[in-house]
Amino acid sequence: MMTRLTPDLIAGVPDDDIDLDSKLMKGTGKTMKELALEAAELDQNTDLSKYTAAVIPITSGMGVIGGFSKSVDAIVRRLGIQSHVTVGTDVQGFSEALVDGVDLIFMADDSMFVAYNVRKNKFISNHFGTALGYSVVLKNAADGIDGKDVLVIGAGYVGSRAAKILRDMGANVSITDKITEKSHAVGKELGISVIDDVDMAISSHKYILNATPAIFPGRLIMNGAVISTPGVPHYFDEEAWNKAKAIIHDPLEIGVATMATCSIAFPINNNGESR
Ligand code: 2YJ
Question: How does strand 82-85 pair with strand 113-117?
């Protein structure tokens, strides 16, 4: 399922959400920028201020989402990259960005959100950026993931990619999805375990990456659970917050920050879709 962000969901991102870094620090010991650099396998001292970016509002399909371009732009700028929103939209905005000579172009329609590196003629999708960013978040929040049992909930665009990334990080990954055909297809492709009973999967795992908009009740969550959760909308009940050691979520920042750093570094032959 493709979740459409709404002005409501991204309202104030990242300005009102300035505690994201402190939330991330608390959960992972690192800031968004540090995590995004790590995800792209870039040195922590990398100077990002020499890169320029443009965010193009796209009107096709369901149209412009109020605040979306501005939020993406603010996240990219927070990394130190020189970014702006183009005046024109769509192809006009794209031409404007090319004439401007920017290094990176961010743009999203209803089904794809990409960071395009103009110099290298390569792109990173938001699906990949989100999967990688939240996998790195989980790795840090779990104090290393190598050899640990990790559950990925959701075998969609983000979940399937996260399962592969976490497997490659050395985790013992299981995948679950309420549509079992999907989890089994991914399980087979990646050679990882599949658990059909979603509730049972949740209650037997401490380390979880949740790539679904599903609400999972606190009674299922293990004490001390560490949950990296990109799914929107996002809802955990009070019991979940009490029992979990960390629940890490934001509507846009981690995914976009990781897209930005990866569109500079392209860790491991990235083709926008896979690592
Ligand atoms: O430019 C705009 O304001 C809009 N065309 C942005 C559309 C943003 N796209 C979405 O929310 C889609 N669901 C795709 C996002 C992929 C993230 N998983």
Answer: unpaired
